[in-house]
Write a structure and sequence with these properties.
- The protein has 417 residues and is α/β, with parallel strands linked by helices.
- The chain folds into 2 domains: 2-28 and 267-416, LarA, C-terminal domain (2-enoyl-CoA Hydratase, Chain A, domain 1); 36-262, Rossmann fold (3-Layer(aba) Sandwich).
- The chain has 14 helices and 20 strands.
- The chain has helices at residues 36-43, 47-51, 70-83, 108-112, 116-119, 186-194, 210-219, 247-262, 285-296, 318-325, 330-339, 345-357, 368-373, 382-395; strands spanning 2-7, 11-16, 22-25, 57-62, 91-96, 123-125, 134-139, 145-149, 157-163, 166-167, 171-172, 226-233, 239-245, 263-266, 270-276, 299-308, 359-363, 377-379, 403-406, 413-416.
- The chain has a 6-stranded parallel β-sheet, sandwiched between helices. It has a 6-stranded mixed β-sheet with strand order 6-5-4-9-12-13, with helices on both faces.
- It is globular.
Length: 417
């Protein structure tokens, strides 16, 4: 089988896999859909009534690291705002950056689409480290301080948008995640993400997941009414479902749809897995690591995972890279994470845990020395890397090594068995 893998914009990486070795190409499932415009239109049918009489409206959107179809969502939201008599100057669009950087000028088209010129003056990027923009409203059941953007408390209606797919430690993205970590303070995000190193925090997990519990607790402190608009995308990042209304109910409905799309059964683990971080998740290693985490679920003990991601903006978070780079062994890294957690170390913990069980290689634009310091092996020829992994498996006595490919590894969750 000849595969053509998108890479770094318009580039393609060609790789050939023998049919007798190919276990499968695992992609999100195809489900019936009414289409983007119809789905979002139906989901926002009651929005005008919700906005009626509002003076200040806060619209929360995802940043450019997410594939959320924000322009299409705005196409559904803005006509309803107009029906409710809401003018543009009454709307503030808050980019839920979490601890990421603010939106760049060149990303405005991705975020606002045809409304860029009309709305860019209404757009504000959340800054988790700006103490003047935050309000402390209490603590979660896990002791996490709840610092939230003060714009939440100066508006009288909130429209929260997002997309829902599996998340490697929050269970699922979307819904409550628009607020924590989306527009939370740095201390809040750090304390919340420290919980990610617990075994209960993993992909698909909500019940008993301390990370999810924190996010739910934060919602209780928001007084303004919230209208939630959540989308679920398919493998081509097209809308296949949309839910709306109550922030909790709409999230749970979207989770059901997301499970039917992204949870993909595979009969057995494979000797080799190629996991691809698609745009926009290829922005940096911090985001692309989700492809490692998901892909590792399908790799046999002692097998090989090859991540394909340009990491076009580098590492994405220096803390987890510094931590791993300061350690000579995986065990040393895991011990340091437990003793002195900093934001980003949860990423290091997940990567280190995977590297302890399997061999992880990376086809990327990152510097080779940087890649090696993260307990990854840099490769520059994907076909050669695959062939070498096959030969290594044969030397272990595996006559016909199996290969599994995840063309959208950051959101495809293999269900083995």
């Amino acid at each position: 089988m000849q595969l053509s893998i998108p890479y770094l914009g318009d580039q393609k990486i060609e790789v050939a896999i023998s049919d007798e070795n190919l276990l499968g190409v695992l992609e999100p499932n195809t489900i019936p859909s009414a289409g983007e415009k119809e789905s979002l239109g139906r989901a926002t049918a009651n929005l005008a009534a919700f906005l009626k009489g509002a003076n200040k409206v806060l619209v929360i959107i995802n940043d450019a690291t997410r594939p959320t179809p924000t322009p299409a969502m705005l196409s559904a939201i803005l006509p309803q705002a107009e029906l409710a008599g809401i003018r543009d100057e009454q709307i503030t669009i808050l980019v839920a950056t979490g601890a990421h950087r603010g939106a760049k000028e060149q990303e405005l088209d991705q975020l606002l689409g045809p409304y860029t010129e009309r709305l860019k003056g209404r757009l504000v990027s959340h800054d988790a480290k700006d103490s003047n923009s935050l309000v402390n409203v209490g603590k979660t059941r896990n002791g996490t301080p709840i610092l939230l953007n003060k714009l939440l408390f100066s508006c009288d209606r909130i429209v929260a948008t997002g997309s829902v797919e599996p998340h490697y430690f929050a269970g699922f993205t979307g819904g409550r995640k628009a607020f924590l970590p989306g527009i939370a303070g740095y201390a809040t995000i750090e304390a919340n993400h420290k919980l990610a190193i617990q075994d209960a925090a993993h992909s698909l997990a909500l019940d008993g997941n301390p990370v999810h519990e924190d996010m739910m607790d934060a919602l209780e402190h928001i007084k303004a009414p919230i209208f939630s608009l959540m989308s679920v995308l398919d493998k081509d990042q097209k809308v296949v479902g949309a839910t709306s209304g109550d922030i909790v109910d709409s999230f749970q409905e979207a989770v059901q749809v997301a499970q039917s799309v992204f949870c993909v059964p595979v009969k057995q683990q494979s000797d080799i897995v190629i996991s691809v971080a698609k745009f926009p998740m290829d922005i940096n290693l911090y985001q692309s690591q989700k492809g490692i985490d998901n892909g590792s679920l399908a790799v046999k003990d002692g097998g090989t995972l090859i991540l394909v991601s340009s990491c076009r903006e580098g590492i994405g978070d220096e803390e987890f890279a510094k931590l791993l780079g300061s350690c000579s062994t995986v065990d040393e890294a895991l011990q340091k994470i437990k003793e002195n957690y900093k934001l980003g170390y949860h990423k290091a913990a997940k990567m280190a845990s995977v590297s302890k069980r399997i061999s992880v290689q990376a086809y990327t634009e990152l510097n080779d020395n940087m890649v090696r310091s993260l307990f990854l092996e840099p490769v520059h020829d994907l076909q050669q890397a695959l062939d070498d992994a096959m030969e290594q498996a044969r030397r272990k006595g595996i006559a016909n090594p199996t290969v599994l490919v995840l063309p959208d590894g950051c959101v495809t969750v293999p269900l083995v068995g």
